[in-house]
Structures are given as C-alpha cells and as structure tokens.
Write a structure and sequence with these properties.
disordered N terminus; two-stranded antiparallel sheet; elongated
C-alpha cells in the first residue's frame, strides 16, 4: 500500500485500515465537499464513512431528545417536553412521531391551534398512521370541528379496526357531541 494517509494491517484474509490524524482532521473540516477534492478512492470512502457517522450521531441525538421529552411529558412538564421535541424535530424533521407527541403535549397545555398544526404535520408525513389521525381528531375536537374530527377518527379506525379506545371513547364521544349540537340547533 503506497498511500501515506493510511496503513494496512492484515486481518482475517483482508485488510483493516486505520487513519492518520491528518486524514481524519481533513475529513471533519466544516464545509468539506467531496467533489472539490482530487483524493484517491480510499480517502473518498473515508469521507463517506465520516458523513455516515455524523448522520448516526444526529439520529442518536434525535432519539435521546425524543425519549427525554417523553419522560418530561409523563412527569407533566409539557413545555419542557415540547422544547425537547422541537430540538429533535430540527434534527429529524421527517418524523411523524415527534410531531404527534408534540401535538399531544400542546393539547395538555390548551394550545389547540399549535396542536392542530403539529398533528396535521404528523398526518402529512405519515397519512396511514392511525395514532397520528387520532391525535389530529382530538386536536380538531378542541377547536369544535366535530365533522373534521369525526372524519379523522373514522380514518384512524379504518386503519386500525382493533383500537377500542378510538372506537369506544373518541368516536363515540364525538357522535354524542354531534347529536347534542344538532338538538341545540333545533331549539
């Protein structure tokens, strides 16, 4: 091996490569662009590996923030939970779960409009996830939008027919509210 940026160590019919500090330093420089470089194949592979590690670190941080938010929410510390989930969303903006959890906490804080917005984003990211639809329906109930809530509860039940809480609580309560509203409007 003739590259001064790597050493090969024979292991189990293959080679394991270790990096000199200069290679790692170069690869971790901010603003490094693979296409601007005339490096050899090994260095390009190293750059890709460093990038994958950075992504993994971000995913782990997002997961940690999600879990911290869950612990805070369970303790009734909803604003702090929302803050943790907002941080996680910055890292992982395509997570429907984070938006759905945020919506639930916002509902607990009587922040109905932001809760609807977060739940809508969860449904937008994963339209076939029953829990997202259920949370959106609950947020819409908070706005008094019975028909919209009913529609989302029915879609959620269609996606998860075994959800007895959805059937017996959310859907049933919404139908009862709708009937009461109808009776009041007749008077």
């Amino acid at each position: 091996i003739h590259n001064h940026n790597k050493m090969a160590v024979k292991q189990n019919n293959g080679y394991s490569f270790t990096f000199k500090k200069t290679v790692v330093k170069k690869l971790s420089q901010p603003g490094f662009n693979e296409s601007d470089s005339e490096d050899d194949e090994f260095t390009l592979a190293s750059k890709r590996a460093c990038f994958r590690l950075q992504l993994e670190d971000r995913q782990m941080k997002s997961k940690r923030l999600k879990e911290e938010g869950s612990i805070l929410a369970e303790a009734g510390r909803y604003w702090e939970a929302v803050s943790k989930w907002n941080e996680a969303i910055e890292i992982n903006p395509e997570s429907a779960v984070l938006y759905e959890m945020k919506s639930q906490a916002l509902l607990e804080l009587d922040q109905v409009f932001p809760a609807v917005k977060a739940a809508q984003k969860a449904v937008e990211l994963n339209p076939i996830w029953p829990e997202g639809r259920q949370t959106l329906g609950r947020a819409q109930l908070g706005l008094g939008e019975l028909d919209m809530a009913l529609r989302n509860f029915e879609k959620a039940l269609h996606l998860d027919p075994s959800n007895t809480e959805l059937r017996n609580d959310d859907l049933q309560w919404t139908w009862e509210l709708k009937q009461k509203r109808k009776e009041i409007s007749k008077q």
